[in-house]
């Protein structure tokens, strides 16, 4: 198997963790070129990959002999380098979300279809053991036909993760309903077997917007300031100079197959995990925690009141970041670069997560009215569903 040469566009914390996965035994991939405008990032990339070419010039990377490009920049800087790499004939990995506007998401898909270059989107939660366990149970008919999906996301590290750097600025992310919620919206769509066609949302900035202590951290990374001792949320210091995204929100969705879904996100909870409840015609399932050894419960018979699950299934263990999801994600991407074909992640699904998050933000910042979600043309959906071949 020929060793794949990979170019990284952006080298921050997420890029460093994903790049490490490239070097796992059996992947046969090397980091050949790294591009980042930050002097710190270029220095750290050079230390991590002394044999790679390190550059601040995007054209230098795009014009190099790499087989594939991984776009790992901040969200608002995804679309342009993705399109440039696709037009240069490179296979592309895009970190989620695919883009922060509907127009850019559709522009990226159009470029991939027009050029025939392979596009892969890093929705790693489709590889998380807790999610794949729930998906398998649903597909096996454990709860019958899915009719509702509810997700509560307790973002316990929200203050440190999202309100002390560029994530707090809506011009960089549109909304945390998109930036953070793109994961969960995609999972809701996957578990439900459909895409949102109507969305309505409410939300506000009820904690972090009132904190006046601000700091420019453009020369820092999140792990430079993260600490569990940063508590309670109202006493945080050193927030981003711009804080205009919501710290609590809730979204209602009607999918194209009739499934009803809801998503709640809060960035000032003391605990940090996701709780999914999926209700079908023959029962329901729910996860209690989302890490290895924690449980997914299934209720599949009638009870008088509250009851323990009729079945429990342990979340399996796996090696690598995000419960093993990152390792599986990179392995699938490399296979896709070599062979093409269908993948568990989907550019169409990534676009649908973007458009749902964008329109949810519009509803939230308007009067909360339900907004229609425009579908992609059928021929575009077919192109990507057929594996981009």
Automatic annotation (TrEMBL):
It comes from the Bacteria. One of its GO terms (molecular function) is nucleotide binding. This is Gfo/Idh/MocA family oxidoreductase. Residues 135-366 form the Gfo/Idh/MocA-like oxidoreductase C-terminal domain. Transmembrane segments: none annotated. Residues 4-123 form the Gfo/Idh/MocA-like oxidoreductase N-terminal domain. Belongs to the Gfo/Idh/MocA family.
């Amino acid at each position: 198997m020929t060793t794949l040469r990979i170019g990284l566009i952006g080298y921050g914390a997420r890029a460093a963790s994903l790049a490490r996965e490239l070097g796992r035994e059996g992947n046969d991939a090397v980091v050949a070129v790294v591009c980042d405008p930050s002097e710190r990032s270029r220095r750290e990339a050079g230390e991590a990959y002394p044999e790679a070419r390190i550059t601040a010039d995007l054209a230098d990377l795009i014009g190099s002999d790499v087989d594939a490009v991984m776009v790992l920049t901040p969200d608002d800087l995804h679309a342009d380098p993705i399109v440039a790499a696709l037009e240069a004939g490179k296979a592309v990995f895009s970190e989620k979300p695919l883009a922060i506007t509907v127009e850019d998401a559709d522009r990226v898909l159009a470029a991939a279809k027009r050029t025939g270059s392979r596009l892969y989107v890093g929705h790693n939660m489709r590889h998380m053991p807790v999610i794949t366990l729930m998906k398998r149970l649903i597909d096996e008919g454990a709860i019958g036909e899915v009719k509702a999906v509810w997700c509560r996301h307790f973002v316990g590290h929200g203050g440190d993760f999202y309100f002390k750097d560029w994530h707090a600025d809506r011009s960089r992310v549109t909304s945390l309903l998109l930036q953070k919620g793109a994961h969960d919206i995609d999972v809701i769509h996957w578990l439900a077997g459909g895409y949102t066609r109507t969305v309505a949302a409410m939300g506000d900035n009820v904690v972090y917007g009132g904190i006046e202590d601000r700091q420019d951290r453009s020369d820092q990374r999140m792990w430079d300031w993260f600490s569990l001792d940063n508590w309670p949320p109202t006493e945080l210091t050193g927030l981003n100079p711009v804080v205009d995204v919501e710290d609590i929100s809730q979204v209602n969705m009607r999918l194209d197959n009739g499934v009803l879904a809801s998503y709640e996100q809060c960035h000032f909870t003391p605990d940090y995990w996701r709780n999914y409840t999926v209700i079908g015609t023959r029962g329901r399932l729910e996860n209690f925690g989302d890490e290895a050894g924690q449980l997914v419960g299934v209720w599949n018979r009638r009870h008088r009141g509250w009851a323990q699950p009729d079945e429990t299934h342990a979340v399996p263990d796996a090696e690598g970041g995000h419960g093993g999801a990152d390792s599986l994600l990179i392995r699938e991407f490399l296979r896709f670069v070599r062979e093409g074909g269908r993948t568990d992640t989907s550019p169409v699904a990534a676009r649908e997560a973007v458009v749902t998050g964008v329109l949810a933000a519009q509803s939230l910042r308007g009067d909360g009215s339900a907004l229609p979600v425009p579908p992609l043309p059928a021929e575009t959906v077919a192109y990507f569903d057929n594996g981009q071949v």
